[in-house]
Design brief:
two-stranded antiparallel sheet, 4 helices, 353 residues, flat, 2 strands, mainly alpha, Trichohyalin-plectin-homology domain-containing protein
Length: 353
């Protein structure tokens, strides 16, 4: 495209060169040289691009060929593996058939063995149940015998146990002798002897505990008697102390009553004196009032325009004013106001009340 452009511009350039100045001609020549160099560079780049495109095509063809070859190799290997798996499956199937046959044989033998074992176990279980039933019967006999001993006192229980022990062992062994073997009978006999020995130890412990309890009861009775005796002595001592205290309190109360009676007598005497004194004062006042009434009826005097009093001046009035009344004569001495007596009442005593 650049070549065409240059070719199209050549006549214009030629005309311009022909019409231009020498300086412009030099510039045009340098420009033309530069354009020639650019065209050469463009051709070189086009050649390189074409060479790269050719190499790219060759590489893509080689890659496609290699891919096809690899695809063929993979399909061939896949087929070989399929054939190998088929052969392996056939071998495995034959092996499994053989193993299944062997397992069936082994399982059949195991079923027979389990059946035999179950029969043996059933027989053994039935025998064990029978032995357990007989042992339970023997245990019931011994338990009944032990229960009979438990309700007795320790000493009679020991005597009865010593007398019946051999008979109990014989009766229990008769239950096991017809069914169990010698080893089981020996084990049962050893167990029976052990239980009997435990019962003997229990009875002896009961005897010792009973004796200890008897001693404790005796000691308790003695202690109780001593305690009751000490309590009785303490009660008697306390009663005697109470009697002495009551006697002392009675004497003290009598003395206090005497003091109170004496105070009451003094108070009554004082009240009588006060009453008599009040009566005397009242009598005197009545007498004075009577005299004043009589004087008021017969005397009517006026001194310096003042009315002379007829009645006497009360005891609370100012007697200094009586001196101004020349005609007033007191008919009787002045009665003093009675004093309030000191009343000494009974003093309340909580203990005495």
């Amino acid at each position: 495209m650049l070549t065409t452009r240059r070719r199209n511009l050549s006549p214009l350039k030629t005309r311009r060169v022909q019409q231009s100045t020498p300086q412009q001609k030099n510039e045009f020549s340098s420009l033309e040289e530069a354009m020639v160099d650019d065209q050469a560079q463009i051709k070189e780049e086009a050649r390189l691009i074409k060479a790269f495109e050719d190499w790219e095509k060759q590489r893509s063809r080689a890659v496609a060929k290699h891919y096809k070859l690899s695809q063929l190799e993979q399909s061939r290997a896949k087929e070989e593996r399929r054939l190998e798996r088929k052969l392996d499956n056939m071998v495995i199937q034959e092996q499994m058939e053989w193993e299944r046959t062997q397992l069936e044989l082994v399982e059949q033998a195991q079923r027979q063995a389990r059946g035999n074992q179950r029969r043996l176990l059933r027989d053994e279980h039935a025998r064990t149940l029978e032995i357990d039933r007989r042992r339970e019967g023997a245990a019931k006999i011994t338990r009944h015998f032990f229960d009979r001993l438990a309700v007795l006192d320790p000493e009679p229980a020991l005597e009865m146990f010593t007398a019946k022990r051999d008979e109990l062992v014989r009766c229990c062994l008769e239950l096991m002798r017809d069914f169990a073997d010698d080893n089981e009978i020996e084990a049962f006999q050893a167990e029976l002897q052990e239980s009997l020995q435990r019962e003997v130890n229990t009875l002896r412990c009961r005897q010792r505990a009973f004796q200890q309890e008897q001693r404790v009861q005796t000691h308790k009775k003695q202690v109780h008697q001593d305690m009751r005796r000490a309590q009785y002595q303490e009660i008697q001592t306390h009663l005697q102390a109470k009697r002495d205290t009551r006697t002392t309190d009675r004497v003290v109360r009598e003395e206090i009553d005497k003091q109170h009676d004496l105070q009451d007598q003094r108070y009554r005497a004082m009240q009588a004196r006060k009453k008599q004194k009040d009566l005397d004062v009242h009598t005197k006042l009545l007498e004075q009032m009577r005299l004043k009434q009589a004087e008021k009826a017969v005397v009517s005097l006026r001194i310096e325009g003042k009315t002379s009093p007829v009645l006497r001046t009360p005891y609370w009035s100012d007697e200094a004013q009586e001196a101004q009344l020349d005609t007033f004569v007191r008919s009787s001495p002045i009665v003093q106001a009675p004093e309030s007596p000191v009343i000494r009442g009974k003093v309340r005593c909580q203990w005495y009340d």
